[in-house]
Amino acid sequence: MERQVIQSVGFRNIKEDGAVTGFQFKVRLPYYRGIFLSQLRPGTLFVDGERFEREDIVWNIGGEDYTCEEMQTDRNTHWSVTAPAVLKVKKEGGLSQGWHSLKYGFCFTSSYMPPVVQENLNPDEENFVFMPEFGHHVNERRLLIV
């Protein structure tokens, strides 16, 4: 995996039944341990300034698809630090060939972090305590679809 949270490998359009229905990209967990899906707080995605809501994104972890709503209550599925998640984004026609600017943040709760640090977690904004190793960081990357 690459050092950046948003990975360059796997950035492509998604085809279903011959039609392009969206695009996907991969993110790695910037944490030394894995987390359970119920700990994850997905953010809002921006691609070239276009906003994609949480409801437009499906997370694929370990080969299984999860909506943000499903992840909120999933206390059994574990996201390993050694395997990137594939984020599948709904967008009819997908993205055009060429360079695209992605901006995406996510964060997660941790049992040993003080509540004051976690009570105002917002995956779309930098936390008041900068802790990228806990996912509290908005990630940006420019990627190419060919």
What do you see in this structure?
The longest helix has 6 residues, at 68-73. The chain is mainly beta and 146 residues long. The protein has two helices and eleven strands, in the order βββββββαβββαβ. Strand 6 and strand 7 (64-67) form a beta hairpin. A five-stranded antiparallel β-sheet has the order 1-2-9-6-7. A four-stranded antiparallel β-sheet has the order 5-4-10-11. The model has no long low-confidence stretch (mean pLDDT 88). The chain has helices at residues 68-73, 115-118, and strands at 6-16, 19-27, 35-36, 40-47, 50-52, 57-61, 64-67, 78-79, 85-90, 98-108, 137-145. It has one domain (6-145). It is 7% helix and 48% strand.
In terms of topology, how is this protein built?
Elements: E1 6-16, E2 19-27, E3 35-36, E4 40-47, E5 50-52, E6 57-61, E7 64-67, H1 68-73, E8 78-79, E9 85-90, E10 98-108, H2 115-118, E11 137-145
Antiparallel strand pairs: 1-2, 2-9, 3-8, 4-5, 4-10, 6-7, 6-9, 10-11
